[in-house]
Amino acid sequence: MKNGYKPDRGSLSTISDALPNLKGATRKVAQFVLHLPQETINLSITELAARVGVSEASIVRFAQSLGFSGFHALKIRLAEDIVSPMLIVHEDLMPDDNPATAVQKALTMGLRALEDTANILDMSALEASIRALCNSRQIVLFASGNSIPIAMDLDFRLTKIGLLSRFSIDPTMQEMYAALTSHDHVAVGISHTGSSKDTVHALGLAKQHGATTICITNHSDSPLTRHSDYCLFTATRVSQFREEQLNSNLAALALTEALYLGICIERSDALMHSVLKTSRATDHRKY
Question: Model pTM?
Fold first, then answer.
């Protein structure tokens, strides 16, 4: 694996990030650890191998692929991550949870996702992305599935401050937007997995036409990153009970908010006139 453990990123986030690239026995180990982290730290390597149905060697390979010397080192870091007042953040939502418990778990997981994302944020990539967006003649956004609302929100915000932004939920339209980009355009691809075919294809097409490309994704070794000049990563964990998680959207929204605020600060004087114009134009829609 090209991306090992980083001290500023929790072990569970590291495993979640690596999961799409793991196969066979090592993937089974990763899924078990993500779903039962507390139980994992109380098991020996022999017990874990029996529970997962893999060899002890597979567990060692899994730990080493993350940058640890072995399973014991992984357990130590895992224990450090989960033995804290934020323990509930590592608990997955279960079908028999009552509403109060479910809400508490969901909100706490969302807060931890924001904290983890802030901890791993590459400020140089963020600043470069903001400069590129500020200097672009046109911005095109690509997203599909669960990432569409995030792209729609960013498109709305950019338009409100007078930037030329384009987004369509139709993948064919996204392809056409990508084909019409040039060197003075910026293309932004948003995908939690980084493996959404339509988004990856559109961003790759924009890059071929000379656009500066930015991606927002949770996985650092995903196909989307291969077409990106600047990568902004979220840090959220896989849920057993929910395929599409609130915390993954919250983290991605936080990054789009950071881009938006950065643009506003960078171009505050120029944007104020646009904000006043768009606000006046929509005043009649409010009581």
Answer: 0.70
